[in-house]
Amino acid sequence: MATRVLSTEEAKTAIRQIQSIVNGGFTDQITQLDTQGRVLSDPNVWDGPLAETFRNGTWPETKSALDNAKQQLEELRNQLDRISQDIFTAGGGA
Fold first, then answer.
1. Highest taxon of the source (predicted)?
2. Quick one: what percent of the chain has pLDDT higher than 70?
């Protein structure tokens, strides 16, 4: 039985859109969020009960999620070239 290979213009457009989003600064924005979160975590910059809650709970949890998202985006970025190459090859060219 033959394996079906399909690559539509919609697939090509979708892969280019994903590449544009990831390469267009999304991971940079995550880095910027991390920088500002660290600033707010400094008790010399912001202190008090809400600041302490942020510093000890909110920010560590958020930073962990951001780090995970950034790692996954970097893995996706590494796969995008292979994915796009497969799509373009299946579709008969660029």
1. Bacteria
2. 91
Domain that holds residue 79: 30-86
pTM: 0.70
Residue 43 lies in a domain: yes
Number of domains within the chain: 1
**Residue 40, in any domain of the structure:** yes
Residue 73: partners with Cβ closer than 8 Å, 6 or more residues away: 22, 26, 27, 30
Q: What average pLDDT does this structure show over 9-24? A: 84
**For residue 22, is it within any domain?**
no
